[in-house]
TrEMBL record:
InterPro entries: Ac_CoA_lig, ACAS_N, AMP-bd_C, AMP-bd_C_sf, AMP-binding_CS, AMP-dep_synth/lig_dom, ANL_N_sf
Catalytic function, reaction form: acetate + ATP + CoA = acetyl-CoA + AMP + diphosphate
Residues annotated as binding CoA: R213, R214, G215, K216, T332, S544
Protein name, entry field: Acetyl-coenzyme A synthetase
Enzyme class, first EC level, given as a word: ligase
Cofactors (names): Mg(2+)
List of residues binding Mg(2+): V558, H560, V563
Modification after translation: Acetylated. Deacetylation by the SIR2-homolog deacetylase activates the enzyme.
Cited CDD domains: ACS
Sequence positions bearing N6-acetyllysine: K630
Pfam family, one: AMP-binding_C
Domain Acetyl-coenzyme A synthetase N-terminal: 50-103
GO biological process: acetyl-CoA biosynthetic process from acetate
Amino acid sequence: MSCGLGHNGRPATKHRKGDVVSNESLANLLKEERRFAPPADLAANANVTAEAYEQAKADRLGFWAEQARRLSWATEPTETLDWSNPPFAKWFADGRLNVAYNCVDRHVEAGHGDRVAIHFEGEPGDSRAITYAELKDEVSKAANALTELGVGKGDRVAVYMPMIPETAIAMLACARIGAAHSVVFGGFSADAIAKRVEDADAKVVITSDGGYRRGKPSALKPAVDEAVSRVDSVDHVLVVRRTGQEVAWNEDRDLWWHEVVERQSAEHTPEAFEAEQPLFILYTSGTTGKPKGILHTSGGYLTQAAYTHHAVFDLKPETDVYWCTADVGWVTGHSYIVYGPLANGATQVMYEGTPDTPHQGRFWEIVQKYGVTILYTAPTAIRTFMKWGDEIPAKFDLSSLRVLGSVGEPINPEAWVWYRKNIGGDRCPIVDTWWQTETGAMMISPLPGVTETKPGSAQRALPGISATVVDDEAREVPDGGGGYLVLTEPWPSMLRTIWGDDQRFIDTYWSRFEGKYFAGDGAKKDEDGDVWLLGRVDDVMLVSGHNISTTEVESALVSHPSVAEAAVVGAADETTGQAIVAFVILRGAADQSDELIAELRNHVGATLGPIAKPKRVLPVAELPKTRSGKIMRRLLRDVAENRELGDVTTLTDSSVMDLIQTQLPSAS
Ligand code: 6R9
């Protein structure tokens, strides 16, 4: 029977971890027919209409030059893009601006000083509203404090913080004085901090005593103490008091934020820097080896962060209450908590804690309390809410919501539909936004007032962005084909390099397909030309010569009523090259029987075709995830192949792997 899979007619080619897979299109399996038109009232008043695509197509650089005018420049740029030395781009190179001024001061000058910038909600229930005028004072004081500590233009500052307003203030203070921040996820180990501080050669680390997680204070400073003891570059550690827990103190090095920052003047004149002034470094772990310090600069980055936040969320700063549930330590927090929303003068919610503290309705209670209108979260969270049950969000008033966003992984169609129905009241459009740390801002996404959406597809490159899908020989695939996602033109918020390693920047992103940026994701185009993301190419499975996407098999599993979450990997197999091994979290009531396992295998076979039927289905209680909620399939592959586990330092909770291993029948 035909199951929609291509076959290269040869035995399975060797497939090693990290290889770019084979010479055949990625599988194109899942059929999704549901469609949702944009709500008429939203479409009628949308910030961006279909015309934007036309305008950007006719004159891409002119389009971006126009978007750059959303910002306030001390010197307006006359050049848009300098691509004379690819892949090293310069955007708006002769323009000068101050990023913090754009995110804070200009809103106060425009008469919006009383508008709330941040509604902070602490996990224990404490809350704080910070207006733009107050934010300006706080950022100015922190900028003065950093200057006093000897930090200046071109220096690096590491930030290791919980989700509290001081984190955004610290980032903006760095931007204000031209220092680059390097935010390290609060929760990474001392070793991970040390590597990042050392690589960036940071002078100062900003941290806190701790933050609240799962109902108790969780310490942060001890990890910084240990990390800093191993590196030479750090002169000072500035410590915010959040939990009041006891901390070790080094008199020569440590300073309390409330002592040093609070006594500063709230006056600080922002200096204008060139558009290509480094704004931040953010490390991505990559699959192997040393973390890559992704470098972003100022003018182009802020232009695209602000434009996409305006266009994709249809933000109306006077009336919307926006909430992005990401951690600031992830790029999503940089672009869509700090820079995009604040550049646009948004009012937003910032929440410190976890979604199940003190109860599983916490997110919905927050939506109700603040009247959140735009919610941006991740598929991992949505699947968790599905697992907890429809009755939990149903207890809260979610009628204020009008746009829902998703980011971080492909969203399974079933999770998409659940999100729309149970959170969005069947009325809110969902924007599934594809982008990366490296792209700096959203690249592929529906527009809420324009696009007829399809569950599971990020659909179309945003205005001004050029993306496509190519085969192994860099040829664009026709509609209906699959292959590799590439970006074919430079974009304003693109990474400028890997910090300290230009060659690695070229090798990693620009060498696979000449003249194109290789994103590392598999993708397909449907018959309408819309893009579907299929997961990381490193994770693609090769079974008897067929390339099979992890995403599609996982989505098929999640579409079964007994499965809450699934992660599939290809494990070495003597007969088929790789065999599909599925790890599944069953829904509350589901009984873990041999019959159910057989039913799940058959369900995948029936949905996608027999070749995609998992060889093994292993029920587990948890899946290994990064702090941004991505499943770490390589660790599951290690389990499935009976290997010692690789690097677990970027896991949220490393005990998950012990749990999985002890639960499994011998994995041979
Ligand atoms: C923003 C962010 C980037 C990788 C990316 C892709 C996956 C993110 C996605 C998505 C499908 C989406 N990804 N958004 N896949 N649909 N809407 O997540 O950055 O942490 O660097 O990860 O995440 O695989 O290549 P980052």
